Amino acid sequence: MVLNRIRDSIDPILTSLGKAVGSTGISPNTLTLIGFAFAGFSGLLYAIRPDMPYLAAVAILVSGFFDILDGAVARVTRKISKHGSFNDSTLDRMAEIFIYSGIIYAGYGISPIFVLLALAFSLLVSYVRAKGESLNIKISGIGIGERAERLAVLAILSIVGFVAYGVYVVLILAAVTFVQRYAFVYHALERGNTN
To answer: Phi/psi of residue 96, each to 5°?
Structure first.
């Protein structure tokens, strides 16, 4: 929610950047793949350089930049498609799996069960949105911790060396967001409020 508001406020800048990048002929799908590659690389960095978690954090932030950029390019070049949406969503889930797998491998003084729970609730947040929207219920913006917020928290705390605390915060954000979205969809279905 917070990062979406920031994104809305800098939308003119993103649009200009999207036009500039789009004019080079780079497709949104290519940008999605680059972002995914950086996310996967961040998981590898967590695993092989546990003494330097800020490297993984930078890779997460770069991945997030491309995650925003691919959407901006798709909009300005009018290349928004179901194929692109499917590809983006699927690779986002895979990216989270790679990131948290790297953290589990390295340890960082946190029990793997908490990392697994952070990942599980993160995936459930995305699942509830996908299922809700398949039932014609708009869920975007519902919940305190969407993917962008969760990864931003993990990256920021990793930069200062508190990877374990980052996982704990992500777990809380993801669990609360899951409950919020589940309740929202459940009550919308009870009321028959589908779009």
So the answer is: -65, -40
